[in-house]
């Protein structure tokens, strides 16, 4: 389970940073967040397999977040994909995908299901046995949503206590772990709460997309128990005017949202091309903030960076 950064640049790609795209590897599945130009080529240098992508989450329809979609969809079609693929995004995503499918000659023989999301209210947009995903309205120059991935964890079985209560090793242990009461040989009923420990705390990751800083977003992440925030920080804090003009965030903005959210890990992405060969100001500010904040680790994302994920005990 890990995050793979395929592209960490902003509107203009550079020799060091591709357009925005993030892969999340989870339980044999790959969830793709944004798909900037060149995303599929970036995947070649990682262990992200395009054929294992079943769900794509687009934050907004600026080109640096979507222009990798035509090539990606055509390539996986060329490679014989037949399984459907889900694409989530803000209003007008359906029209955008329809236009993408009109580009050139191709052999896309799989269904593409498009889900347009509210830019007014948070939504739970996906709910599986092992994880759930929320969208959250962000504030940018075009309709934009952020996303939250939240892992589900089942309670752990206290095997020692179960055996002490007379439960035999076998199918009944699984039934208890799945939340069902069982009857043992002496007729006594054992309830799940008799033998279950609190579940581990699952991974919870927030991804802002492009946005001005939103304190409400931080509060929402806190309510879900998020421990990781991937937040755009296009500029260092000395460029606050640039951030306001373009409706983006600074390093300081992202740190403030991370503090409100109560996360322990903040990963900065969507770095302006102006820093490509002169990152000193950006790095110095991050180093300074890391020294000031003992409970928050701040990382600058780089293309091809792999960030391992591990659930923690409560």
Automatic annotation (TrEMBL):
SUPFAM superfamilies: Metallo-hydrolase/oxidoreductase. Zinc phosphodiesterase, which displays some tRNA 3'-processing endonuclease activity. Probably involved in tRNA maturation, by removing a 3'-trailer from precursor tRNA. It comes from Methanothermococcus okinawensis (strain DSM 14208 / JCM 11175 / IH1). InterPro entries: RibonucZ/Hydroxyglut_hydro (IPR036866), RNase_Z/BN (IPR013471). The active site is at residue 64. Binds 2 Zn(2+) ions. Pfam families: Anti-Pycsar_Apyc1 (PF23023). GO terms for molecular function: 3'-tRNA processing endoribonuclease activity; identical protein binding; zinc ion binding. Signal peptide: none annotated. It catalyses: Endonucleolytic cleavage of RNA, removing extra 3' nucleotides from tRNA precursor, generating 3' termini of tRNAs. A 3'-hydroxy group is left at the tRNA terminus and a 5'-phosphoryl group is left at the trailer molecule. Its EC number is 3.1.26.11. Zn(2+) 1 binds at residues 60, 62, 140, 210. The keyword Membrane does not apply. Keywords: Coiled coil, Endonuclease, Hydrolase, Metal-binding, Nuclease, tRNA processing, Zinc. PANTHER family: ZINC PHOSPHODIESTERASE ELAC PROTEIN 1. Zn(2+) 2 binds at residues 64-65, 210, 270. Belongs to the RNase Z family. Residues 272-299 form a coiled coil. This is Ribonuclease Z. The lineage of its organism: Archaea, Methanobacteriati, Methanobacteriota, Methanomada group, Methanococci. Its cofactor is Zn(2+). Homodimer.
């Amino acid at each position: 389970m890990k995050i793979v950064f395929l592209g960490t640049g902003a509107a203009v790609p550079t020799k060091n940073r591709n357009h925005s795209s993030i892969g999340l590897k989870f339980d044999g599945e790959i969830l793709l967040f944004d798909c900037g130009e060149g995303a599929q080529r970036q995947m070649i240098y990682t262990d992200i397999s395009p054929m294992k992508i079943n769900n794509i989450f687009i934050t907004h329809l600026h080109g640096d977040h979507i222009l990798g979609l035509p090539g990606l969809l055509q390539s996986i079609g060329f490679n014989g994909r037949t399984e459907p693929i889900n694409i989530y995004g803000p209003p007008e995503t359906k029209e955008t995908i329809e236009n993408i499918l009109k580009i050139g000659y191709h052999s896309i023989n799989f269904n593409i299901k498009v889900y347009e999301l509210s830019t007014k209210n948070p939504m739970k947009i996906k709910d599986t046995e092992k994880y759930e995903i929320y969208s959250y309205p962000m504030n940018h120059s075009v309709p934009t949503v952020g996303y939250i991935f939240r892992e589900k964890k089942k309670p752990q079985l206290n095997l020692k206590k179960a055996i002490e209560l007379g439960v035999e090793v076998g199918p009944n242990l699984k039934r208890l772990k799945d939340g069902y009461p069982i009857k043992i040989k002496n007729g006594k009923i054992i309830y799940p709460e008799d033998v279950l420990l609190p579940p581990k705390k699952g991974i919870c990751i927030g991804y802002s997309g492009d946005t001005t800083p939103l304190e409400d977003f931080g509060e929402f992440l806190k309510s879900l128990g998020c421990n990781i925030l991937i937040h755009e920080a296009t500029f260092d804090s000395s460029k606050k005017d640039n951030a306001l003009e373009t409706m983006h965030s600074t390093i300081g903005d992202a740190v403030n949202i991370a503090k409100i959210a109560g996360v322990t890990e903040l990963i900065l992405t969507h770095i302006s091309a102006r820093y490509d060969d002169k990152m000193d100001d950006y790095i110095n500010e991050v180093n300074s903030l890391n020294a000031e904040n003992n409970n928050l680790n701040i990382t600058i994302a780089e293309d091809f960076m792999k960030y391992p994920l591990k659930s923690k005990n409560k």
